[in-house]
Amino acid sequence: MEAPLASWPWGNLGVYKYVLYGPIVAKAACEWREGRSGGWSLHLLLLFALRSLVYQLWFSFGNMLFLTRRRRVVEDGVDFKQIDKEWDWDNFLILQALLGSMVLYAAPSLEELPLLQLKGCIVALLLHVGVSEPLFYVAHRCFHRGYLYAHYHSIHHSSPVPQSLTAAFATPLEHLVLSAVMAAPLLGAFAMGHGSLSLVYGYVLIFDFLRSMGYSNVEVLPARLFDALPVLRYLIYSPTYLSLHHKEKNCNFCLFMPVFDLLGKTIHNKAWDLNKEIRSGGNDRVPDFVFLAHVVDVISSMHVPFVFRSVSSMPFTNNFFLLLLWPIGFSVMLLMWAFSKTFLLSFYNLRGRLHQTWVVPRYGFQYFLPFARKGINDQIELAILRADKLGVKVVSLAALNKNESLNGGGTLFVSKHPDLKVRVVHGNTLTAAVILNEIPRDVKEVFLTGATSKLGRAIALYLCKKNIRVLMLTLSTERFLKIQKEAPEDCQHHLVQVTKYQAAQHCKTWIVGKWLSLREQRWAPPGTHFHQFVVPPIIGFRRDCTYGSLAAMRLPKDVRGLGSCEYTMERGVVHACHAGGVVHCLEGWMHHEVGAIDVDRIDVVWRAALKHGLTPV
């Protein structure tokens, strides 16, 4: 039987739990309509919106790895398991809103309260130090014992990587105790007649600010400050200080002031040394592998880990909420153009090797602007040189970053810098392998669009060697003949040039490397399956046909710290070009994979991927 107050009573409501704010919203609407300014309802709603914003802003800051990577306390990333456990982190806000509505309705009218009263602030501060801090310390130590820890507090400690949202991840009983701790100074100040509106906003938001800071997993307090004023070590905690509590569990129990750990003899003796170590950049580890990505469009740019965890941890889809934030995303885009610099987006660990995703601050449409190509190549080149200087082993280029017309699939950089130690990989060999292994073994004929592209050429040559007839859609006879001559003489007759979609009206296996309109798709017979390597993917207009997704592979099960989805991919799934770079790194191959695809290596790369635990989707 579950312990009382160990789970949330509205836990099964999902997003409908926000209906619980209904009575407060209705009360605020009535007060607004009646022109009454003395009610607390509107302020209560505004206060809890601001509280959510405090936690969200600290979360965003903590996950801006391009700013905070050197000062991260716990080096590991947050995985999907922790994200799912903490999904309803804001339950405590609903609880405290309901409790606050009952308490504040009995409070004096706003018309009777001053906007600010310094005596009230002083009283609240004294009550916080004299009541809230010791009360939390004692209660926290109790929650680390026997029954209370096993049935309540152990859930909070099951999150291995602290984040601001982790601060709110606890059971209802713990949040009731925390609510009492928070309410004591406010109730005391109001009872003494020194309450004010500013006190309510100020104390609650500062309380949340300090809680979020402690759990942010980023050391923000400089060690020099503690060295200059040693007494501050006991007056304010730090993210490092709190992380030791989460790791050791038997130390550093204080709310915000370590002086109570000093008095209770529960202070960790390495707290200050660890703070110095992290502030000096001790957690800035050089990655073994870098995936150099790019932004697709303004909406998808908000599908990054430091914006909304609930969005980035699920496959990308357009939704109304993100559309509302489009102006903010557009403004950020302008800033990215003005301050062009490749930045760290996310990371994960695989087989003890650190894999990072860096982003070139360019949007998809820019890659098709002739005047923008040089600037984009300069950014990619700088990223490769930076990776080479750091000691990165492999850099894999995402879709548009290896565009043939842009840089010859990475050939430009390898030719320009022949002494590169970092291996540059376009990953298209594994992309071709994924597509080819999707094709049923009994297929005798395929229709190929984008046939003379890098991938189209490799797919055509591979299939013709398997005695499969390939209808290659191209208007360029010269390019077709060039590819045909690369095939063995006894296989060349399997490659057939076609110039119209009508030629494939009896072929049920289409491999799409060029975007297809509805009119073009109509030439496919019923039952056709569209394999594709075109970006963006084609739209599935035909209900009597099936459509494959972009080539992708699922990462091995032992991957750690992966907590965001790669664009529209499922959890744990990455684009094949990304996976190709991972395999290149795990195998320790020392060659560059740029330019034309080596058809003879397609099966080699495929077997290596399967050997390392990557699986087709």
UniProtKB/TrEMBL annotation:
<dbReference type="Pfam" id="PF04116">
    <property type="entry name" value="FA_hydroxylase"/>
</dbReference>
<dbReference type="InterPro" id="IPR036291">
    <property type="entry name" value="NAD(P)-bd_dom_sf"/>
</dbReference>
<protein>
    <recommendedName>
        <fullName>aldehyde oxygenase (deformylating)</fullName>
        <ecNumber>4.1.99.5</ecNumber>
    </recommendedName>
</protein>
<dbReference type="GO" id="GO:0005506">
    <property type="term" value="F:iron ion binding"/>
</dbReference>
<comment type="similarity">
    <text>Belongs to the sterol desaturase family.</text>
</comment>
<keyword id="KW-0256">Endoplasmic reticulum</keyword>
<dbReference type="GO" id="GO:0071771">
    <property type="term" value="F:aldehyde oxygenase (deformylating) activity"/>
</dbReference>
<keyword id="KW-0812">Transmembrane</keyword>
<feature type="transmembrane region" description="Helical">
    <location>
        <begin position="320"/>
        <end position="339"/>
    </location>
</feature>
<feature type="domain" description="Fatty acid hydroxylase">
    <location>
        <begin position="126"/>
        <end position="266"/>
    </location>
</feature>
<dbReference type="InterPro" id="IPR006694">
    <property type="entry name" value="Fatty_acid_hydroxylase"/>
</dbReference>
<dbReference type="GO" id="GO:0005789">
    <property type="term" value="C:endoplasmic reticulum membrane"/>
</dbReference>
<dbReference type="InterPro" id="IPR050307">
    <property type="entry name" value="Sterol_Desaturase_Related"/>
</dbReference>
<feature type="transmembrane region" description="Helical">
    <location>
        <begin position="42"/>
        <end position="68"/>
    </location>
</feature>
<feature type="transmembrane region" description="Helical">
    <location>
        <begin position="182"/>
        <end position="206"/>
    </location>
</feature>
<feature type="transmembrane region" description="Helical">
    <location>
        <begin position="289"/>
        <end position="308"/>
    </location>
</feature>
<keyword id="KW-0472">Membrane</keyword>
<dbReference type="InterPro" id="IPR021940">
    <property type="entry name" value="CER1-like_C"/>
</dbReference>
<keyword id="KW-1133">Transmembrane helix</keyword>
<dbReference type="GO" id="GO:0016491">
    <property type="term" value="F:oxidoreductase activity"/>
</dbReference>
<dbReference type="GO" id="GO:0008610">
    <property type="term" value="P:lipid biosynthetic process"/>
</dbReference>
<feature type="domain" description="Very-long-chain aldehyde decarbonylase CER1-like C-terminal">
    <location>
        <begin position="446"/>
        <end position="616"/>
    </location>
</feature>
<dbReference type="Pfam" id="PF12076">
    <property type="entry name" value="CER1-like_C"/>
</dbReference>
<keyword id="KW-0456">Lyase</keyword>
